[in-house]
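Issue 218. Parser rejects a valid record. Input:
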Amino acid sequence: MKPRRRKAKGEPTIALINVVFLMLIFFLIAGTLAPPLDPELTLVNTADLDSAAPPEGLVINADGTLQADGQPIASAQDYYATHSAETVRVVPDQALPAKTLLQIGAALHEAGAETVLIATERSIQ
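Output the parser choked on:
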C-alpha cells in the first residue's frame, strides 16, 4: 500500500482580503463624514499676533510676582478680594516653577475661588 498524501491546507487569503476590504470601506466612509471647508474660505492667521492676557486674568510673572489689569498685586487673596468670582483665570509665565503655580492656585481656592483656569498658549504646527 502506498502512503496517502496529506492535502496541504490553503492559506486563508480570502479572510485577509475581506478584512482589508472592510477597512478600506470604513476609512472611505469615515473620511466623508465631516464636510470639507469651503474652498473660498480663508482662515484667520494668528502667527504674528501678539498675545495679551485677558483683562480679568491674574498674571503670574516668572519670579512669582502677581499682576492684574497691569497693576502689581501683593497676594492671590488680595486679587480675589477685588475680583471675586467663582472662576479665576490665571495666566502664568512659561518660566514660572510649577510649585509656585500650585501654591497660588491653592491660595485662590482658600480665598473662595471654586475653579482656577490656567491660560496656556496653543500652537498648531
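Fixed in the parser; the record now loads. The beta strands are 58-60, 66-68, 71-73, 87-92, 115-118.
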